[in-house]
Amino acid sequence: MNDLSANRLKVLAQIQMAAVAAGRDAETVRLIAVGKTFPAADIATLYRAGQRDFGENYIQEWQRKAQDLRDSCPDLVWHIIGHIQSNKSRVVAEQAAWVHTLDSVKLARRLSHQRPSHLPPLQLCIEVNTSASTAKHGVAPNEVMVLADEVAALPNVCLRGLMCVPTADNREQTVAEFALMRDLLAGLQQKYHQVDTLSMGMSDDLADAVAYGATMVRIGRAIFGSRS
Ligand SMILES: *Cc1c(COP(=O)(O)O)cnc(C)c1O
């Protein structure tokens, strides 16, 4: 077995252990393999090993890979997990299945407008800036509901949940941000019953994220290796 497949199995085992420790069913946690900076061939290898969900940050890089993989990986599910500039929204609306980084009404409207009607609705998570850092993308926790109300009224998108990238400096802070996300999701679910997704957890904080209710973990380095 090559390294990528072995790494993937290790991550799946970590998810399994974290889920059991949290009293959760591991089936409720979906692994998104984050391939930024790595070649399409690596994604194809993982696809052949059974991986279907892949995340990408940079639209141009993603476009090249998506083109390469279109024929060989027909069931591949693309998740956009990087900031989307308005002028890049069309390819996302046309070719992605999920956007984890919705951060404005304007972007939501564009994505809905540009989503081809023959495709299922684009699945959206609102990115939350859990650290109140102005350097980060995402909306403030107290702005989530306002944006959710706008998104819920749009025709070709489906609001599925929330996503965050916590501040990485210490575990205590990270866990506090995960707890905030769990509470925000619970609030959103009171109003919107289709909301079921908490996208959080990366290579270094996967277990804590699962403990706090993550349903999608976005794993790069633990599968692909370190980025140069
Ligand atoms: C790069 C990235 C990941 C994966 O991070 P790793 O530490 O490599 O697991 C997850 N989410 C986002 C938004 C990223 O940019």
List the helices and strands and how they pair.
Layout: H1 3-21, E1 30-34, H2 40-48, E2 53-56, H3 59-69, E3 77-80, H4 89-95, E4 98-102, H5 105-114, E5 122-127, H6 144-152, E6 157-163, H7 171-191, E7 197-199, H8 206-211, E8 216-219, H9 221-224
Parallel strand pairs: 1-2, 1-8, 2-3, 3-4, 4-5, 5-6, 6-7
Helix pairs in contact: 2-3, 4-5
The structure holds pyridoxal-5'-phosphate.
- The Rg value, from CA coordinates, equals 17 Å
Strand order of the largest sheet: 7-6-5-4-3-2-1-8
Please give the largest β-sheet: 8 strands, parallel
Q: What's the total count of β strands? A: 8
Taking the alpha carbons of the first and last residues, their distance comes to 24 Å
Helical amount: 40-55%
CATH class: Alpha Beta
Bound ligand species: pyridoxal-5'-phosphate
Beta fraction of the residues? 15-25%
Arithmetic mean pLDDT? 96
Structural class: alpha/beta
Integer tally of domains: 1
Order of helices and strands: HEHEHEHEHEHEHEHEH
Our count of helices gives: 9
CATH topology: TIM Barrel
Domain Alanine racemase N-terminal: 28-227
Protein name: Pyridoxal phosphate homeostasis protein
Function: Pyridoxal 5'-phosphate (PLP)-binding protein, which is involved in PLP homeostasis.
Keywords: Pyridoxal phosphate
